[in-house]
């Protein structure tokens, strides 16, 4: 039986492992943490609606239920025929390698004065602590923002920033102290969120107005300071807590490798997810450069599409099944259930459509239900439905 080694136990790596087992391969997954962190449901940690533990799924448990082996380890170096771990171990016993180690974030001047809603599990807990302490004080100024990467426009991560901001607004309102807080949103692009279409932008503007959130866009960020954000035109956003999510940047392991990569350090792959020019290495999810329309975005559901296509394509290559190679580029769309804490909106973008469907109340519970479904499905307790 041919062996596939998968690096990274996030949404893409785990789906690749499950799919590769189904295709009849021996599979080993290596990841630095011993759990899968389900980022889409981590947005409720700052406001205390879920605990960090509720967002984690043990990789050991998924591996046992899904028939692959798991090893905890941090990848230091990737070569075409070997993977080196931080602890000095070298792994060579694989026929195929699937790289799914995600992306890093761009560095900005003074970034240490900010926290990101898309950060590590520890960083997200720090946001909760800082927010709790402002709530104890009974007042405060909170600035929310996200940045862009001109070398990789698809690596912008704005959705979760909007979600956490709307959740914080509704949480403060529920506590009866919203009027004591000043919430400001900032972003360097003229129209943040534009990839969701004009209708979505209009709706978002209305939400900003209704929630009394100040909006400053189209101004580059000069630096972050302990007490706020300085913009290029010397505008200063005074803030007690700055929640900023930089755009994605290539993973250092990829940047330091000989693998084909873009200027921003993302893995160059073919539409079949095979790393360009290398027969036995594939890339899945945020670690890759994504080709496609201007509005394309890196998302969990795309990482899963890439994972399944990769397992299928290796099986076809190995003659385990017949059929054509599958390509992720045929499935590029944006599908996002944007949560607001008291409801949500379903955003969908494809070449043909840009839809934003408001889902008051039910939208929130639909996203909650998705989180439960995702956990049960990964643990093999219920079949895949989406
Ligand atoms: C807060 C938030 C909310 C989101 N909401 C949505 C949503 O609603 N819908 C949606 O479709 N997408 C959403 N996304 C995007 C989605 O989560 C990502 O696109 C998806 O997680 C990408 O999967 P991945 O496997 O490529 O990377 P990741 O999920 O980041 O997984 C990478 C894995 O590799 C591991 N790793 C990294 N470096 C190493 C190393 N050197 N050695 C070993 N292991 C390593 C990491 O620990 C991690 O387990 C959200 C993202 C965030 C941050």
Automatic annotation (TrEMBL):
| Pfam families, sorted | Pyr_redox_2 (PF07992)
Q: Give residue ranges for domain FAD/NAD(P)-binding.
A: 3-294
> Gene3D superfamilies annotated for this entry?
3.50.50.100
Q: What is the name of the protein in this document?
A: FAD-dependent oxidoreductase
């Amino acid at each position: 039986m041919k062996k596939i080694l998968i690096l990274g136990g996030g949404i893409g790596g785990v789906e690749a492992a499950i799919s590769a087992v189904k295709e009849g391969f021996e599979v080993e997954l290596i990841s630095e943490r011993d759990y899968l962190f389900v980022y889409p449901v981590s947005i409720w940690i700052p406001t205390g609606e879920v605990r960090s533990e509720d967002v984690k799924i043990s990789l050991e448990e998924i591996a046992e239920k899904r028939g692959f082996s798991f090893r905890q380890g941090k990848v230091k170096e990737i070569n075409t025929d070997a993977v080196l771990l931080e602890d000095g171990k070298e792994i060579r016993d694989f026929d195929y390698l699937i790289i799914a180690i995600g992306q890093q974030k761009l560095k900005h001047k003074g970034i240490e004065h900010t926290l990101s809603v898309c950060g590590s599990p520890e960083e997200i807990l720090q946001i909760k602590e800082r927010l709790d302490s402002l709530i104890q004080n009974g007042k405060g100024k909170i600035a929310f923002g996200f940045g862009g990467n001109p070398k990789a426009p698809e690596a912008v991560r704005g959705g979760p920033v909007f979600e956490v901001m709307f959740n914080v607004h509704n949480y403060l309102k529920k506590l009866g102290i919203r009027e004591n807080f000043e919430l400001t949103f900032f972003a360097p692009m003229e129209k943040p969120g534009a990839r969701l279409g004009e209708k979505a932008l209009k709706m978002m503007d209305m939400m900003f107005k209704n929630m009394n959130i100040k909006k400053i866009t189209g101004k580059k960020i000069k630096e972050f300071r302990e007490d706020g954000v300085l913009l290029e035109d010397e505008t200063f956003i005074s803030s007690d807590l700055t929640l900023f999510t930089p755009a994605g940047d290539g993973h250092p392991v990829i940047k330091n490798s000989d693998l084909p990569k873009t200027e921003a350090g993302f893995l160059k792959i073919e539409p079949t997810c095979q790393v360009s020019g290398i027969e036995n290495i594939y890339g899945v999810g945020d670690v890759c450069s994504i080709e496609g329309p201007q509005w394309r975005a890196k998302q969990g559901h795309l990482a899963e599409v890439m994972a399944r296509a990769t397992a299928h394509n290796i099986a076809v290559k190995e003659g385990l099944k017949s059929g054509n190679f599958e390509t992720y580029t045929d499935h590029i769309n944006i599908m996002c259930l944007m949560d607001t804490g008291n409801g949500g909106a379903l955003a969908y973008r494809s070449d043909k459509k840009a839809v934003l469907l408001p889902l008051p109340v039910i939208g929130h519970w639909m996203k909650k239900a998705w989180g439960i479904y995702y956990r049960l499905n990964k643990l093999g307790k219920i079949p895949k439905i989406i």
